[in-house]
Every structure is written in C-alpha cells, then in structure tokens.
Write a structure and sequence with these properties.
Chain lengths: 404, 359, 404, 359
C-alpha cells in the first residue's frame, strides 16, 4: 500500500485549494441528482474553467480536448476530496461525460472520438441513453426498435422509454436491432443519433419528483449515416455492456455519496427540535455515523477500483457491486435527510424544473430521484443477478419450460 | 369479545370504501393535486357522516370512537383520498370533547358535525416540530406564528396547540390572522403557515392535550396502513401482469419475496392499529394508551416507508412515473411519517410513557 | 372491537395474579428456546399445576385431560400477559403440545386422541417431528423414508435429520412414503412411532449452540401397527400441513417474543458502561423501543388470529406470515441482547446440556438457536414462497426445463 | 502510488494462506476448541515471522506495519485459525513501540519477536467494557481485577490498559496474579479473568494509549473481513452443490440474491480495511486515523454479522451443525464484534474523533 503524497501530489493539493479559494464562488450550486437540467451558462463556464485547470476531463487525452494527464488515482482522490470539502461543484456529470466518453475512448473510432468527445466534455453536447423500451426494461436483449439499411443509411423505427435528459439532449446513444435474423444478442447495434433528426418525438413522462426527468422517445423513419454505428453492426450488445459498466460506476459514485454526507452533517447541525440540534441527540448521531462508515467503505472501494483500472486490472466482482451498493446507500442518506427535516421539510415547492435553491425540496427531490436510480440503469434485481452470476459464478436460473 | 371491527363497523367500512372507489380516481387526484383539494369529495364524505364521526350524538354526530376513525382513515389512505379528515374530523372534535368546557362543546361540536366549519390543525408546539413555532397567549389573545398547519385549504378555523395552555380554536377570517398556503410533498394535502397578531381565541384547557395528539397519531398510523396496503396490492397485481424475460415478473422469486416481506411486515400492523385505536377509546382505563399510540405511529412510519419503496420498485420505472398514480400513495406515506412527530420522536415518547426515559 | 374485560375476565386476571403470587416460586426458570431439554421433575409438577388451574391446555377438552374451557382469546391473552409480566414459566412448549395435540384434535381418530393427548399435555410423553431428510430439507414432497405393509404392520426404513428432541423423545410423528406408485404428494402417510421401537438409532448432530439439539434418526425395519397412521394412508401430506400450520404459529409465538422483550429491558437496565446503564443511553433505548413496537404488532396480530380462529375463520395471509416474521424478530431481539452484554457476555459456559442459569450463555444459546429456527420448520425462503403464492396469490415459479 | 497490497505483501499473504490451508483443518479446530489452543500452530506462525511482524528490525522483528498485520489478520480470520495474534503480535509490540521508554523497548521487543513471551491483553479500562474492571496502580504495583483478557491461554504476560496511566505489562507467574480461564463464545479464543494483588508491573506511559486501541480495532476488523469472506465463499460453493427441488439451490434467485447482497456489502470492506490500516501506519500525519479505525471496526462488525447469518442460512440446517465447521467462523465474527468496543461504542468514538460529539 503506497498512498504517500509525493511532492507532486502535495503541490496538486495546494493548487486545488488555491483554485477553489480563488474561483470557488463561481461554482454552480451543488446538490440535486446531476444531469436533471441542461447546464446553464454558469455551469458551462465553470466546466471550461475546470477542464483548463485539469480538474475535469483530467485523464481524457489532449487530442480529444481533455487535460491529458496520466491516470493517477491519488490525483483524482485529492481533487474529489477538496471539492467535496469545500462544497464546490466538481463539474458536469451527465451521461455523455460519464458514460459515452469512456465508451468511445474504449471502442469508438478515431473519427467518432475526435468529433464527439471535445464538445461533450465541455458540456456543449448533451447525450441521452436510448436503451429501455416499454416491453424491454430489464430485459435489454429483447428490444424491438429496429434500424434497416435503406439507400446507404440506417432508418430507425421504434420507441424508447425512461430516457432521462432526452427533452434537452442534443444526441442519443441508441441500442437497436439491425440484424433481425441473428440471435437476440447478436442482432443489435449501437448508434449515435442527433435528437433534432426528423422523425424524433420526445414526450416527457411526469414522475414523482414533479420534474420532467424521464421521457418517452418515439422514432419514426429517423435516418442516420452508416458511420453512426459504434464498433460495427451487430456489436451493439458488446458496446452497450461497456457503457453499462461505466453506468454502474456513475450510479454508485462515491464522490456524490461523500458530498451528500457532508451536506447531511450540516443539516443535522442546523436542524433543531425544542432548541437542541439533532446532531447533539445520540440516536440521530448514531444514524449519521453508521452511514458515514458505509460511505467511507464506498469511497475506499472506489479508490481501489480506480487503482486497479490504472493497472489495467479487471476488478470483476468489485466493479459489479458498485451500482447496487451505491444507489441503495444514496437512498438511505436522503432518507436520513428527510427524517431530519421533519415536518418543516414537507413544503415541496419546485419553482420551475428544479428547485435546487430550496433545501428541503432538493432533499426530497433527491430522495425520490434516488429511487429512480435504484430502479433505472438495471434494477436492483438485475444487479443482484449480475453480481451473483458474473461476480460470484453462481448458476444461472434454469430456463422455464416453454419460456422465451 | 371480538378482536377487530364488528359487523356494523365492517358494513360502514365497506360503504366508505365503495364510495371512495367510485369517487376517487387517478384523474380526480390529479385535479386535486393542482387545485389543492376536492371540495365535492369532502361534501360526499360529510354525507356519509365522516365530519361528525367523533361528535357525540347529543351534538348531532354519530358519537363513535377513535377505533372507527382509524378504520375510516385506513380506507381514506387506501384510496389516497384528496380530502381533509385528521384535523377537522378527528383532532378538532376530540379537542373539544377532551379539553373543552361544556359551553364550548355545545357551541362548537354541532357546527363540526354539520360540516359547517372546517378546522385546520397546527400541532407544532406539542409534537416536536423542526419548523417555526413561536406562540404566546396573553389575555385570551394569540400572537406569534406556527408553520405547517394541516388541512388549512378551505378551512374556516384552526386548532392550535399551545406551548403550555392546552389548545386554541381560532377563526381564520379573524383580523390579525395571516394564512400562507404551502404545497406539501403530498400534494393532495397542502399545508399552511399561520401567523397571529393578538387574535382572540377560544382556549381549550380542560384536560390533557396529549390525548388529542395520541389519537391523531393512531389515525395517521391507520392512514399509512391503508396506503401501504394499497401499494402492496398494486405491486402484487402489477407483478402478475407485467412480463419480462418471457414470464410474469411476479413469478420471479426476487419479486415474490419482496412482496412477501412487505406482507409479513404489514399484515400484523392491522391488528396493532386496531388495538392502539381501541386503547384510545378506553384511555381512562388503559395506562398504556399513550405508549401504544406512539408505537403504532412509529411502527407504521417504518413499515410504511419500506412498503412505499418496495412496491414502487416492483413497478420498475412505471412506479416512478405518475402514469399509474403510484406516487400519490408513496408521498402520502412519506408525509405522514413526518406529521405529529416522526418515528424517532414517537419512540422516545413511548419510552417516556413507560418510565423508561425521563420526560 | 370489543375487548371489554367482563367481570369474568377481571376475575380471571385476579385469579391468575393470585396463583402466581402463591405458586410462582415453584416455576422452572424461564428463557431458553423451550423444548431443548426433557422437562425435569420441577417442570412436570409445574405443568400439572398449570393444567389443574387451567393455565395450560386450557382449551383442550376435558375428555383428553385438558381444562376444557371454551376458546376465548381474551382469556388466553390475560393469562399470557400475567405470566410474562411476572417472568414465570407458561408451562411446557414442546412440539407434542404445540403441534401434535392440535393436529390430533383436528384430524386424529378418537382412539389416538384419548391415548396420546393426555400424557402429552402433562409433559410425560415427549414428541419429535420426523419430516426432514438429508435429500429433502425444504422439499418435503421428495422424501424417501418408506413404510411397506408386511404382515399387517408398517415396516419403516429410512433416515430423518434435523430432528430436534429425538434424543430424549418418547414418540415421533413421522412422514414417510407408503404408496410409492402414487404421485409425490399423494404417496405419503403420517405415522406415530415409538422411539424405543427396535431399529431406531438416534445420533446427535452437534450444533453451534454446543447443545445437542438436533439429531439424525436412522430407521431400519421399524415395525408399527396399521392404526399408527393418522387420518389414513396417503393422507400424510394433508396431515403434515395441519401440523406445519401449527408449527408456523409456534415458531412465531408472540408470547415468547414478549417474554424476551421483558428480559431484554431488564438486561439494558442492569448493564452498565462507565457506570451508566445502557437504558439511559438514547441509541440503546431507541433500539429497544423499535423492537418493542414490532413485538407489540406481533402480539396484537396473534390476538387477531386467535379471535379469527375462535370464529372458525381462515386467517389466510395473516397466518402464513407468522413464522417468518416471528423468527426473524426473535433473532433481532437476541441480537440486541448479545450486543448489550458486550464483552462481558462472551464467556460461554454451558455446564451440561443447557446452562439456563447463566444469563449471557442463555442469551447466546437463544441467539444461535433462533437462527436454527429461522432455518428450520420451513426456511425463510420457503416461508416467503408460501406467503407470496398462497397468501398473495402470486404466480408459481415456472418449472425448469428438464427439472424434477 | 498503489492502493492495496504491494508485490511483497501479496507474496507474504499467499505464503501465509498456503500455510494455514495446510495446517488448519476442521479436525485441528475441533481439537483446539477442546483444549483451548493449538500450540504447534502458533510455533509455525512464529516461524513465518508473525510474532515479530510489528517489532522493529533492530529488535529482531521484521519491522512492518499495521497494514501488514491487517493482511495477516484477514488470512487468520479466513482460516478461523485457533491461534493468538491480536494481543501478542499486535497490541503488545505496538504498546511498547508507542508508549514504551527506550529501555523498555530494548528489553521486551526482542523477547516478543523471538516468541519467547506471549502476551494476553486486557483492555477493559480503555474500550468501554460491560464487565468488571477495577484497577489501581500504586507505586508501580497493580491491584484489582479485570475481566475478559484475550489470549490468556499459554500467555506468559499480560498487557493491561489502566484507567489513566497508560498500560501495564505484567508477568502472569508473578506472585499476586490470579488467572481464571473462561471459555468464550468463540471457543478457539478462550478468555481469562485476571486479578492482581499489589503486583509489580512495567508501566508503559510514554504516549497515547488510544493509538494501540485504534490499531487493535483495525486488526479485528480485518480478521472479521477474512472470516466473512470465508463464509460467503463457502455459501456460494455449497449453493452450487446442494440440490433441492431438482436443481442446485444456487440457481434459485432468493439464494443468489442473498449471496449478492452479502458480496455487495463485503467487497467494499476490503479497501476500507486497507485504508484504515494504512492510516494507522501514518497516524502522525493522518488526523483521521482514529476515526477511520473506529469506523472500520464498527462497519465490519455490522457487515460481518449479516454475512455470518446469511451464509449460515444459505447452508440450511447444515450451517447450524458443526459438521462443516461453519460455526467456527460464525462465532469468531460474533465474538470480534464485542471485543475492544462494540459497534455502537466505536461509532460514538468516531463522532468524538471528528468533534461531532463531546468526549
């Protein structure tokens, strides 16, 4: 184990602190699920500043607009730690940056990387994920949206659902069936589709948060060029799994958990009943401490995974548990928050699309959105199947008689 | 001896549930969520006698008890009904019955039973609020403010718990009263912040105000029970219909066991709520009535949240949207948890009621 | 709802209090899982006294040696409450009394009832349950122990396992295959077998409690008369389900939970850290209170079930949840106890077969035994299947292709 | 930069695990449970350098750190090894290193490294014992009693935490010492109650005794981690073999999900223990070292118990018997939870270490 802060790391720490001291006031507000709204001017400026300083897209090569640093877990941890501690935004966290960019870096063509990575990391091109369909939620291999090749272009028809961000996204990475004659998993392709293409209709799905965070997307004769496919026709399942791997990490994000714990502690310090702050009451403190222990475990675990990734090591089980463990823990953090808010937290007044300025409303929105994250991106039951079968090597369920 | 509702109570319950099934729909809830209420629904419920349930017959009510109110609350929770009940039909008549002088009972109870007045409830001073609560009573006039009054929309009066002096009944149209409506997480149950500038009030101070709170807790527990039962029922039904991987998702052991765990937690709650409600009606003889009320509230708060989450999860993304209306129940359960003292507070009060903790 | 204490009930309450005041000192010690040892002289005398007073076997008809009272839930509740409050033993709780007696009352022949119920309720005849087999634990219908009719007698061959009490039991109620040509469920019979019959060998299974609570039972050419069958040949599955229904109630027994909570409160009052009793520490109290709420729910639930049973009503789901909910709650109660015992509770010194005289040892033994109860009598997974399928009407799992 | 064991540490870990796999069997554990120990095993471990792991090289040890001790503890827990380690190989050398004067270090550390002495540990005064602990130090002589000393079987000395004066090292064969052996829930790790009548002791008082406790907690957490990993591994293996209803029980979703939940809770613990152990080795620079140690202990206590229960359940009745030896791991996890402060105590100390609670 070597976590010695080298002179270089100490310098970085000092540099980040200095950066935050100087520029922190320019940060957009922290909190909220991230990616619930299109980044505003303030968020875009902040992102540009972070990339310039090397605190966002740090390990994305310079050729694609990133900072081009060699992967270094300790650097990542130092930066995350300082931003958390200061309560300053770590930059844009959407599906484009967290899922598509690593996917393209792993399996995209050089042309696709050059074209899409730079504007995506700057927050200028916002992506949404076109996986789920009404009849294929957890069961991705059964999806029905199809793309036929007509006159040298893909022509897409079908419907997607649970598409977060679709109502303001520029692009979608879409999984659809292009080879109807091949077996289920081999007939899929992964296409990059502009959301302003003719034939795309987005209908917001009203959700429990009161915000339009999810959508249905209808695709009717949507045409995209053949080079919109990532990795190649029939390779969609493979590419989607690369993306899902990154999604699992995104959804269990330890930095987000740590940020939340930080806010939660503040909430317990400020909230009083009969004049006594909750943090002074042992049973509230005990709940906070218990969650802190769990967040610490996830934080350390993420450092381990990053370290293994930097060594090119497959973390296997370690990676597979992140989404399940992280989303459930996130829900429990917000559950403590809404309990601590008590009756005074009930007024729920989302002014527009989000209400990140009202603390109780934000916590409740997070709490409900967390439940959406437990369900979305492969529900907990699917995650547990994956952990057991792929991570622990347990036997698959026998196929039912006469089943599909 | 009978543990559970008797024949009359079962008939009333069936009638109420039938009425609610006809009258409360996904669309009516949505409309109420926008406008903050469903005035016609309340009138209908008054027609069934809900307003006067706890008002003695001599004052024009049906003279029933907290047990009956709990059954009604369970049915209202099951329907996620956009209607007042707790404040105007439970807390107000009980406050008058338990704390009011005869003249006060004679004056006010008939107006409650007839649905002539509707009473909001602001119990912050009694139930450990995290919000603003600064009230002073001087020479029969109330000043100060209290946040989070329940059922203030369309209410004519408010029942305000005082720090020491019992409760105050105040007309909301009196000079010096300011009502600031607030939306709630449970949009079917808007809240209001109240402020008072030397407003003349009717002080109810003839008994133990805590007993009104106790009854309110049992009724909230009953409502959460009904809401959770509805959610579990919906989850079981949905799991029988929705197919994935070529089979009904309800045939997957993970989904079945999730439902079984919810049922195992929820089913014993019915008898618990019955018993706690019954103890309220015999509180003079039941030294444990307060402890039972606090525990019933806390326990249903916990079980309710687990069911709210679990049933939503069984519905997958569909549970997270408003398409099936599931969030109405989810949010009612979440909001009830915070009303009249959350589970931590209630458990501590249960300990105090047993002499295990110092008051 | 009518729980009015009639004059009769008030009189009973006074009578029970008086009984306990006068005779309570004769009670054997309370605690321990019940049925872990053969009742000693003290326990038998106490049982006789309880039956005489009508506080045990109260609702068993006089013809079979019981007290013959008409079923009355409130009476049962009053008696249980007073015994719990006083910390006095409610009498013998073994499988004979709690499972076989109600089964015989429901489906036994008059002859079987007259012969077996009286000595069983007195604690003179101890029963064990011969259901599980090495290859048929949860899956009872697949059991292999068989009984062939030879010369007008059943001749039994096979092996049972997890047979608690077998090492000191007089009799076994045994489920075995008598009709090998019939479908799985229809080929079973339920036999009453003397444990001293030639051909029975009992081998204790050492378990984690350190007590020999479970056994393997080997049956080789064990002969019993034809009238040892309950209800009739091929009806064993039906009878076993009657017994299992009573077992579910026994294992989730609310009076036991209430007893335990009572002891637990005392433990938290007596145990001190740095001079402060745990009960004065809000986070310990919060755990106790949370469990008290759950025990209250189970207690009320049991009153409802008894009330429904007295009306002849099938409680359905309400009955099916008792074993699962009750055993898990029991485990959590003892978990709080062993936590409260802290390091001082670690010395574990069962002197002989049980050590009910040493408080920490008893709590640990209970804690481990509770886990055995979660597993035994139909594991939690089986219970949840039953709750979901029979209680909630959810679809059964599809049979696997090529499966049994 | 490397998060996790380095190459040397991985080699040592593999060697230790190999040795334990050869040496510790179901039968050897059973024998040790009867006799209270396995002296030959300890000698073998000394041969691998375990006794001197934390003893500086200048004193004949290997001069490694708490991180290495945690790795070893994880391996010992994984094997449910019937051996001392925490007291004699961790707490004793650390107490000497952190609290001892130079002469004391020079005198004692070589004897520890060589396995010449074995040291029991009685930390009741420091870690919030629920048992007897009444100790007085007067003129360098110790009187009184303390319950629950660890690893007292075959120990030559005891390290006793004092209420205020640091720690005392005392020879168990000195006049005035009484050792009363006690079996423990974890029969592979017997305990002892100690009493002293004006016994001369070596007082170690040159630093913060809490740091010895912190390291002990991390090592216990690591041991529980190893034991829980072993149990989960056994559950997964058993579920793959055991058939019911015509299929491996591991193909049932309920069993799979139980294992998945255990894995999801347990897998992140590895990195947590590494990090907490590492922080101990740099405690001078790491203000959070104490908080991390307390949290690691508390968290592994909780996760450990869930895994102990869940893995036993997967084994069905077989897990409850001693046939497969599963209870050895189960009980080690249960016992570790109570040693050096249970999870509630540790969390409260974590809060104190952050200034969230008053000391």
């Amino acid at each position: 184990m070597d976590l010695t802060l080298s002179d270089r790391h100490r310098a970085l720490q000092a540099e980040v602190r200095c950066f935050i001291a100087r520029h922190g006031h320019l940060s957009p507000p922290v909190g909220g699920g991230g990616g619930r709204v299109r980044p505003d001017r303030r968020a875009l400026d902040w992102q540009a500043r972070l990339i310039e300083a090397g605190y966002a897209a740090r390990f994305v090569p310079r050729a694609y607009g990133g900072h081009g640093a060699a992967p270094d877990v300790l650097e990542a941890a130092i930066i995350a730690e300082e931003f958390t501690r200061a309560g300053v935004s770590p930059g844009i966290q959407g599906q484009g940056i967290r899922m598509l960019v690593p996917t393209l870096l792993e399996v995209g063509s050089e042309e696709q990387r050059r074209r899409w990575i730079p504007p995506t990391i700057r927050g200028e091109v916002i992506w949404c994920q076109g996986y789920s369909e009404p009849e294929a939620g957890s069961d991705l291999a059964s999806l029905r949206t199809r793309a036929d090749v007509v006159d040298g272009r893909f022509v897409i028809n079908g419907q997607k659902i649970w598409t977060s961000s679709a109502h303001f996204a520029d692009m979608m990475f879409l999984l659809c069936r292009t080879e109807p004659d091949r077996p289920r998993h081999e007939g899929l392709s992964y296409l990059l589709v502009p959301m302003d293409a003719p034939g795309i209709e987005v209908r917001p799905l009203p959700t429990m948060t009161g915000h339009a965070t999810f959508n249905e997307v209808f695709l009717t004769d949507v045409r995209v060029p053949l080079d919109a496919v990532v990795l190649g026709r029939g390779k969609g399942w493979q590419v989607a799994n690369v993306t899902l791997r990154h999604e699992r990490l995104l959804l269990g994000d330890a930095a987000k958990l740590a940020h939340r714990l930080h806010r939660l502690r503040g909430l317990l310090e400020r909230t009083r009943v009969d004049g006594v702050p909750l943090i002074r009451m042992p049973h509230w403190r005990e709940r906070l401490m218990r969650l802190q222990g769990e967040v610490l475990a996830m934080k350390c675990h993420q450092m381990r995974l990053l370290s293994e990734a930097a060594r090119g090591q497959d973390s296997g089980l370690g990676l597979l548990v992140v989404k399940y463990a992280g989303t459930v823990l996130a829900w429990r953090l917000t559950a403590l928050a809404v309990d601590a808010l008590g009756d005074a937290g009930l007024p729920y007044e989302p002014h527009d699309d989000v209400a990140e300025d009202d603390e109780p409303t934000t916590w409740y929105a997070d709490h409900m959105y967390d439940l959406g994250l437990i369900i979305g991106g492969g529900s907990s039951n699917i995650q547990k199947n994956i952990i057991a079968e792929r991570g622990l090597g347990m036997p698959r369920e026998p196929r039912p008689q006469g089943g599909a | 001896m009978e543990f559970g509702p008797d024949e009359n109570q079962r008939l009333f319950d069936a009638a109420l549930r039938g009425f609610l099934a006809d009258r409360v729909t996904v669309d009516s809830r949505r409309a109420a969520a926008e406008t903050g209420g469903d005035a016609a629904l309340w009138r209908g419920l008054c027609g069934l006698g809900l307003a006067g349930l706890l008002v003695p017959e001599e004052h024009g009510g049906t003279g029933l008890g907290v047990f009956d109110a709990a059954l009604a609350a369970e049915a209202l929770g099951h329907a996620a009904a956009p209607t007042p009940f707790l404040g105007t039909a439970v807390l107000a008549p009980l406050a008058l019955r338990l704390l009011g002088a005869k003249a006060q009972r004679d004056a006010w109870l008939p107006r409650l039973a007839g649905g002539e007045i509707r009473v909001a409830a602001a119990f912050g001073a009694l139930a450990g609020t995290t919000g603003r609560c600064a009230l002073r009573l001087e020479h029969g006039r109330l000043s100060g403010e209290v946040a989070g009054a329940l059922e203030a929309a369309e209410a004519t009066h408010a029942l305000v718990a005082l720090p020491r002096e019992g409760m105050a009944l105040v007309a909301l149209d009196a000079a010096g009263v300011t009502v600031r409506p607030r939306r709630s997480v449970d949009r079917l149950r808007p809240l209001a912040d109240l402020s008072f500038a030397a407003v003349p009030v009717e002080v109810l101070a003839g008994g133990d105000a805590g007993r009104v709170l106790d009854a309110g807790r049992v009724v909230l527990a009953a409502e959460t029970l009904g809401a959770a039962q509805a959610m579990l029922g919906k989850a079981v039904a949905y799991a029988g219909e929705r197919r994935q991987f070529g089979r009904a998702i309800g045939s997957f052991q993970a989904v079945k066991h999730a439902c079984a765990e919810m049922a195992a937690a929820l089913e014993p709650c019915r008898a618990f709520v019955w018993y706690a409600a019954h103890a309220q009606d015999r509180a003079e003889e039941e030294p444990e009535a307060r402890m039972l009320a606090a525990h019933a509230k806390a326990h249903l708060d916990e079980v309710g949240r687990e069911v709210a989450r679990g049933a939503t999860e069984v519905h997958g993304g569909m549970g997270f949207t408003e398409l099936l209306g599931l969030p109405f129940w989810f949010k009612r359960i979440l909001a009830n948890r915070q009303l009249l003292g959350g589970p931590e507070r209630c458990r501590e009060e249960a300990a105090i009621a047993q002499g295990i903790a110092a008051a």
